[in-house]
Amino acid sequence: MSNLLEFLTTVRWQDVVDILINSYILFRLYVLFQGTNAFRVLVGIASLWILQEIAASLGLILTSWAVRGITAAAAIIIIVVFRNEIRSALQARNPRTFFWGSPHPQKVSSIELIAETAFQMGKKRIGALIVFPGKDDLSEVIHGGIPWDGTISQEMLNSIFWPKNPVHDGAIIISGDKVAEVGALLPLSQRQDLPTFYGTRHRAAAGLAERSDALVVVVSEERGRVTVAKDNWIKPIAQPEELCQLLRQHFNLSDGASEKEKQRHKLKMSLAAALSLIIVTGVWFGFTRSHHTIIALSIPLEYVNRPPGYEILETSADEVRVQLYGSSALIRSLRPGQVQARIDLGKAIEGRNTFRITQDNISMPPGVSLNRVEPSVVEVTLDVPVTREIAVQVDWVGRLPDHLIMVDMRVNPSTVQVIGGSKILERVSTIYTVPVRLDTLSRSGSLTAPLILTPPSLKMAPGSPERVTVHFILDERN
Amino acid sequence: MLWRSWSLIFCFLSLFFMPTFSGDGFSAWAQDRSVSTPGEIHGSEAAEQRLTLRKSTMCERVENLRPVRPATVFSASVGQVSAFTAFDPVPEPTLIFHRWYHRDELSTQTRLRLYPPRWSTYSMIQLRETDKGPWRVEVTDENGQIIKVLRFSITD
After folding, report:
1. What is the interface pTM, i.e. ipTM, of the complex?
2. DSSP code of A103?
3. Looking at residue B146, which CATH number applies to its domain?
């Protein structure tokens, strides 16, 4: 018990947020992709991955190798094959839907369209008979249907039920967002209690409703009224919204779903959320709480926030060797740029400054901890940049011909203006040219030679030449 | 290692001959310190005068207080190189230094004594293979004030 409490005290608030965010991401992925083929394949890939881990832990070399290959290939295949499904799931028309709500089913728009069209046809006195199948197979009770397979639109519904259309007397069968069949013949109801003004369409609607779980919408040609038949009831509908409500209930859609369905849906979502939380928590602890792997890295030391007007003259170390520990998964995934060592020079002063390297100076990915750093202390010497005039000297190399001697030489200009740290420039009294070979000289003359600035932190002052002219006088050696 | 143990330090305290110069060339005549010469200055006049370097050059060697083969580039095979300086006037006995630098690193330093009324002196170093590169000799007074910088190179 005490171990558990001790363990819980090591969990930071950031860890809790980390787990919650990733659980929610997993849950949202489930919500967005549930019911799609892509989701089923994702579940398959996850199963393969688990199988691979089990095979690897059991030492099944060939199995783990083969499953790993299949998993890798499947991950690519899912993106290619199900790109349209993935796109439609991720394309958020409304950001709120993407982050919070459920994906809006296509059926809803079809339902609204059909409801609206039914009432329009009623106003125009166009009769219509529309069947919304439930779970029952209707092939035994419906006859004479002509396959149509057309996506639902207002224009198409109007044209199907147009009085001069040969199939306008029959019923249409809705399947999803399509008209599956037209001109279908429905069984007539034998009930005696139906109002006398109900014609054949109403009796057909009631007949199918009695014999199946289908919902049938009737538009009266004579009265223009919209009526719905379901199970043993048949009732007129006054508003399109009311029809929509009934259709939603029929399809068990969220708005009109029964209380039982709602509860079932809530339970399903809660289970998914809990499962997401459990999975992510397990993965998180697996990733972050096993500190058995240690790695040593050499990383460059960055000196930042240098006070204005100062230059770094000298540092005792340009890189540090850090020893890090964490879970093997995190340590294995470490990349060079993820670990950085920085020294803040904000409070440094001119001259030598000593800094102790602590955990605060090392930035690491979350879950990775610092074990040791070498060196633990660095010295940084800051200096003020100044301009100084420094003499130029030719760096002769090679050998003059034996019979010659260089009796005189002048460099133009003989001095140059150089900018650098004051302490560096105190130690620099000569700027040398690049090595100039003597071997090719045979008589007096002149040449030009570039200058070399050493150390490289030095730079020429504006206006100072990068090259000098060397005039030399050769004489015969006597 | 500031001082080169192998360097030879020559300090000539005007034996009996002293070189002097006239115009661009050298001329030497016998001169005893106790003997006045036409160029010698006495009393308060001498005190007002300042130590002046009249001639300075790098050379292969010095013979009879004359620089032999003055040059700016010397082959290491020559074996030695000398820094020759001639002062006129020398108002009072004083010290000067020849500081030899190899690529800005002080290699050796020679302390030389000067005596009135004029004085020539030199220092030299023996050359090694590792001495190749640019050199300079700073001629300074006893306070370290630079009087002259002689630049030269040691090559193959």
Report:
1. 0.73
2. P
3. 2.60.40.2550
